[in-house]
Amino acid sequence: MKFPTFAASFLAFAVYAAEPVPVFQGSIERLDPALDALLAPEVKIEVLASGFNWSEGPVWKDGGIVFSDVPENTVFGWKEGDKEAKVVLKPSGSLNGVGGQGSNGLAVDAKGQLVLCQHGERRVARLEKNGSFTALADRFEGKRFNSPNDLVIAKSGLVYFTDPPYGLKKGSDQPELDFHGIYSVDAAGKVTLIDKSIRFPNGIALSPDEKILYVAVSDPQDSRVISYDLTSANPSAKVVFNAQSLKSPQRKGGCDGMKVDAQGNLWTTGPGGVLILDKNGKHLGSILTGQATANCAWGGDDFSTLYITADMFLVRVATKTHGIR
Asked: Which partner from 153, 224, 278, 320 sits 20 to 30 angstroms from 181, CA to CA?
């Protein structure tokens, strides 16, 4: 083994030491007085953990928040009192562990079991108590999905999910479908296509009465939130909010993950952080993270704490509303 000279080592250290250490700088942007009913004027953003590659897909489970680090093929967990996040599941989405992307969106079913969008395996799967996975959906009309990204589970057990191509390995994973679908899958494994016309569907959520399905679209040319009326025989996309005009070098990211609170307000990640919209799509304000922000989820004893995955950070904000359990 050839060891570097002292001068070379010192130079490498000097270059490394000169790199700025990322510092979280967050704030609340208030655009409408109605935001005060959702976020107290004095609320602060609290950093819980950092150092992740790309944090995603948070969900409250077993008294703590669990979330994906997609490139690291790992699910982490954090509970009150922890000084740092701990590995909960590895591998999480690419089971052979060779260069594949890990899990992305996470959900918890009625039995308390973790359900994952597994990028590397190109499927939606349930983690069993013995540590094995059961595929809930891995194909549509005999063709493999691109890379299921995010999901939401209805009270009936029906799982809605999106399937953009973000988890495909460049040069090796070839798409078998020529569209990016929005789907549902029932307990019997029947997969139903809801829409095939949307480029880059991403985050997904249900209204409190489960009559409306919301989807965040991460199309870099048309980042927006759309909705589907599930009471219609043939639901079609309706634009709820277009976030494209918010994009700037200072406001990183686009519409990605999203959640709906018990009052029907939408909390969607978007340019700058988490955008807070009322049920009609009016932008009330934003939780600005200074990072490209992936997703959010409520947790805590009364589901009034919003946990946010913002690039390398896991942060939280106390809210005056409640998430849907």
From this structure: 278
Tokens of 212: 């409306």
| Measured CA distances, 119 to 254, 299, 306 (Å) | 20, 25, 25
Report CA Rg, the chain. Answer: 20
State how far the Cα of 285 lies from the Cα of 271, in Å rounded to an integer.
12
Three-class SS of 295-308: EEEEECCCCCEEEE
Over residues 193-250, the pLDDT tens digits come to 999 999 999 999 999 999 999 999 999 999 999 999 999 999 999 999 999 999 999 9
- The 3-class SS string of 123-140 reads EEEEECCCCCEEEEECEE
CA 259/CA 323 separation, integer angstroms: 8
The tokens describing 208, both together, are 């409190």
Q: Say whether pTM exceeds 0.70.
A: yes
Tell whether 147 is covered by a domain: yes
The answer to the question of residue 241 being in a domain is: yes
Instruction: For residue 233, give the CATH number of its domain.
Output: 2.120.10.30
Token code pair at residue 184: 């549902």
CA–CA distance, 205 with 210 (Å, rounded to integer): 9
Q: Could you give the C-alpha distances from 62 to 6, 128, 134, in angstroms and in order? A: 50, 15, 21
- Structural domains counted in the chain: 1
pLDDT one-digit tens code per residue, 36-50 = 999 999 999 999 999
Asked if residue 115 lies in contact with residue 126, where contact means CB atoms within 8 angstroms, the answer is yes
Specify whether the CB–CB gap between 185 and 159 falls below 8 A.
Answer: yes
Distance CA 85, CA 62 (A): 15
CB-hemisphere CA count at 13 Å for 143? 14
For residue 301, being part of any structural domain is answered with: yes
Which two three-digit tokens encode residue 25? 């700088």
User: Which structural domain range is residue 83 located in?
Assistant: 24-318
